[in-house]
Amino acid sequence: MNPAAGGYRCAMAREHHPRLAIVTGADSGIGQATAKLLAAEGFDIGATFHTDADGVRATAKEVEMRGQRCFVEQLDAAAPDAGAVVDRLADQLGGVGVLVNVAGTGHSSRALDLDLATWRQVLATDLDGPFLCAQSAARRMIAADRGGRIINVTSVHEHVPRLGAAAYCSAKAGLGMLTKVLALELAEHDITVNAVAPGEIATAMTGLDESDAYHEERPGNPLGRPGHVNEVASVIGFLASPRSAYVTGSSYAVDGGLMLMAAHGHDSATGWREV
After folding, report:
1. Catalytic member of 168, 214, 246, 252
2. Is 168 a catalytic residue?
3. Over the stretch 195-234, which tens digit does the pLDDT of each residue have?
4. Of the four, 37, 59, 73, 139, which is 20 to 30 A from 26 by CA?
5. Is this prediction's pTM over 0.85?
6. Cross-strand pairs, 155
């Protein structure tokens, strides 16, 4: 296309984005595993936590053991100044090449029993916070003119509903669509934006220990077990790398095949494999 005719400027590949990553919710679970993996791949890390200071200190120690710098800031993802935390970490790191939005929350109750305050708290944490963090990170990336990566951790419930999780599903679906809009808007700056949508992962948030990924049985899941945090982090690591330079606006389910089961919902948990 002729840029003069269509007003469109092709996003040309720039020098690789800097190996400076901010990971929210890095005190445990998927966020902690992601910080450790990115550090092993040569990234300096900006890590956030909400209340688990001990957890984020353990993350920082693991990052530093891998020979990388780690800076820590407290983040309330539901707060209006969430983006300022990204700015502070970017100042300490000397820039930002990758933002991974992991921090989030959930709630379980029927929609008709859900009070407005809880609805707003979940939406603020799971949607407003990632938006503000992405906005701040993208502005930094554009100013540096070296491209970048934004990776939003959503959920399979970005795509499929769950009984008793109206606020959570709505927030994750919103974050999935925000991912696509940002991918369109930021592509000309060589900034890719993608989502990773985990299914049941063995973390404290799901009431499991990491080791449960290898011995808990899930007969209704094609792979038959919960996922491990490292299995999610590995997909995030790919999306954070130069290897994913032509991937944007996508959502990657890391769910053991769970979303493939819609047509088998009427079957028993153990009998669905029979034809």
Report:
1. 168
2. yes
3. 999 999 988 777 776 777 788 888 888 888 989 999 999 9
4. 139
5. yes
6. none
